[in-house]
Specification:
- The complex is a heterodimer of chains A (about 140) and B (about 400).
- Chain A contains three helices and nine strands, in the order H-E-H-E-E-E-E-H-E-E-E-E.
- Chain A has helices at about 5-10, 25-30, 85, and strands at about 15, 35-40, 45, 60-65, 70-80, 90-100, 105, 120-130, 135-140.
- Chain A has a five-stranded antiparallel beta sheet with strand order 7-6-5-8-9.
- Chain A is globular and about 45 Å long.
- In chain B, helix 5 crosses helix 10.
- Chain B contains 13 helices and twelve strands.
- Chain B has helices at about 30-45, 65-70, 90-100, 155-170, 175-190, 200-205, 235-240, 260-265, 275-285, 305-310, 320-325, 345, 355-365; strands at about 10-20, 55, 80, 105-115, 140, 210, 215, 225-235, 245-255, 295, 375-380, 390-395.
- With about 400 residues, chain B is α/β, with parallel strands linked by helices.
- Chain B has a nine-stranded mixed beta sheet with strand order 3-2-4-8-1-9-12-11-10. Chain B has a two-stranded antiparallel ribbon with strand order 6-7.
- Chain B is globular, with a radius of gyration of 19 Å.
- Chain B has one domain: Peroxisomal Thiolase, Chain A, domain 1.
- Classes of the chains: A mainly beta (about 140), B alpha/beta (about 400).
């Protein structure tokens, strides 16, 4: 689902510049889908996007829709200093989510107070426009 | 010759030099580099014109051309740089020893000059300072696009997430973090070159402000200006020089995960990451074990990373680094393993690990302000959550 967040639309947040290697990810996110590279040789998912599979070295892959579900592997609460673009949001969390597909994904759990963050917390992807062209994949809590 | 013996005992560190360390010196990195380099040459009794090889950090702004132009154009025949910033802080010594062992150079200069703290911002020039992360642009074409847009902008935040995972797995405590900070500060109190010399307590550590959970201010390296330079030459020539040589008994480098990209950092098991692999090869080359080490210089960018490095390099088993540091475990003179007796990067200065390498040389010479008695073996490691390296120096 897509969530409008004025704080994330704030000007000055550094944003990705898609390349031929990463454009399918961002195009999917902009449509509200989390798609990950999946090796056509051995079937493994990988993230961040790469030209080859780190397990079997195959160069063939598909962009497969992921469940969007995962659990918090590790996290921090940024209290500053940080970049000016993020200062209005301090304290904010950053999480490493272990997705059901077995890959790690760095993002943020929205609407989660610092004291509520836990390792192993179940989360699901939400899609947050950060500009007219670009959507970021964030997370929110989900029932276990 | 087996690979494991290829650089063993072939080179020695024979000169060390440094600038004063301070929160801000108001000087260019170029100028500081030259002061440290000339001091290192004088310490060794080697003329700059004898330098025929150089190794620098990849992030060093004073490159070979600028160096030659300022040192009277010595005839360089070998030059290289170590990758991965602080991860390469011991690798520079491995590269220098490798060049000497291979006969590609005889007298190798290694240096690091930094004015990269929050107090160092005084211009936009190449040799002028400031926090690297405050200069991030708003367009991210590279791999940092996978975390910076979420507000993970700097090393201390990335390390916080790695430290948090260690806590989740092993229950590492704030008291254990504090033990590292307190011990290193006590070392710095004895060191007139250290920037932070006022002793601290565990309670003062716990009272310092949270920067990025679980890291408090006193868990973080300090931000300083300064430069350090070392001169290496062959083991044969070292015997005839002015100072007691610090022989490079062993050295190893290992590619591995990088703290900046957690999405790939956690793809491999920790025991297969760079630091544990560098450690295994280091002990094999040296023919000694962690228990034989007299003093250790860990890359102390953050207190929990010292605890993890103890585990990575085999001084403690996985999960036992926290208990290892308790009750003054790292403190001079009676700790289980005296670590960073200069005060380290937590309290002496943050010169990308190179001030710690200089301290290892002083320990071998017997000239430290927190000298380990009869110090024969010193261990030095680069940043343990990057592609990294480590060296062993012996008397």
């Amino acid at each position: 689902m897509s969530v409008q967040r004025d704080d994330i639309l704030t000007r000055g947040v550094p944003l990705p510049v898609p390349t031929p290697d990463t454009a399918p990810f961002y195009e999917a996110a902009h449509r509200g889908e989390l798609r990950l590279q999946r090796c056509a040789g051995c079937g493994r998912f990988r993230h961040y996007p790469r030209p080859t599979c780190p397990a079997c070295l195959s160069r063939d892959h598909t962009w497969e829709r992921a469940s969007g579900r995962g659990t918090v592997w590790t996290w921090t609460i940024v209290r500053g200093p940080t970049l000016p673009a993020f200062e209005s949001r301090v304290p904010y969390n950053v999480v490493d989510v272990l997705l059901e597909e077995g890959v790690h994904f760095v993002s943020e759990v929205l609407d989660c107070a610092p004291e509520d963050l836990r390792a192993g917390m179940p989360v699901e992807a939400v899609f947050v426009p950060a500009s007219a062209e670009l959507t970021l994949v964030k997370f929110r809590r989900r029932p276990a | 010759m087996p690979v494991s013996q290829s650089i063993r005992d072939r080179a020695a560190i024979v000169g060390i030099g440094q600038t004063p360390f301070a929160r801000s010196l108001g000087r260019s990195e170029y100028d500081m580099a030259l002061e440290a380099i000339l001091a290192a040459c004088a310490d060794a009794g080697i003329a700059p014109s004898e330098i025929d090889g150089t190794v620098r950090y990849d992030m060093e702004t004073t490159d070979e051309e600028q160096l030659l132009a300022a040192l009277g154009n010595p005839e360089l025949r070998w030059f290289a740089s170590s990758a991965w910033g602080g991860g390469g802080s011991a690798s520079v010594i491995v590269l220098a020893a490798t060049a000497i062992a291979a006969g590609m150079a005889r007298t190798v200069l290694v240096w690091r000059s930094r004015a990269r703290g929050k107090h160092s911002v005084y211009g936009q020039g190449a040799h002028q300072g400031g926090r690297y992360w405050e200069r991030l642009g708003t367009a991210l074409p590279g791999p940092n696009q996978w975390h910076v847009p979420h507000g993970l902008v700097s090393a201390f935040q990335e390390m916080a997430m790695i430290a948090m995972r260690h806590r989740i797995e092993y229950g590492t405590t704030e008291d254990q973090y504090a033990e590292v900070a307190v011990a290193f500060r006590a070392h710095a109190a004895r060191n007139p070159n250290a920037v932070m010399r006022t002793p601290i307590t565990i309670a003062a550590h716990h009272a310092s402000r949270m920067i990025s959970d679980p890291l408090r201010l006193l868990d973080c390296c300090i931000e300083t200006d300064g430069a350090v330079a070392l001169v290496l030459t062959s083991a044969e020539r070292a015997r005839d020089l002015r100072q007691r040589p610090a022989y490079v008994l062993a050295g190893a480098m290992a590619g591995g995960g990088h703290h900046i990209r957690l999405s790939t950092f956690y793809e491999r098991a920790r025991r297969d990451d760079g630091a544990p692999r560098a450690g295994r090869r280091l002990w094999e080359m040296a023919g000694v074990r962690p228990g034989d080490i007299d003093v250790a210089l860990f890359y102390d960018f953050f207190t929990p990373l010292v605890i993890m490095a103890l585990e990575d390099y085999g001084f403690a088993r996985a999960g036992e680094g926290g208990p290892f540091v308790e009750n003054g475990g790292l403190a001079w003179p009676d700790g289980r393993l005296v670590c960073n007796p200069n005060g380290g990067q937590l309290s002496e200065a943050f010169i990308h690990g190179f001030n710690n390498t200089a301290e290892a040389v002083r320990q071998i010479r017997g000239t430290s302000t927190a000298q380990v008695v009869d110090c024969e073996l010193a261990f030095v490691a680069g940043g343990n959550t990057d592609p990294t390296g480590a060296v062993l120096l012996r008397r």
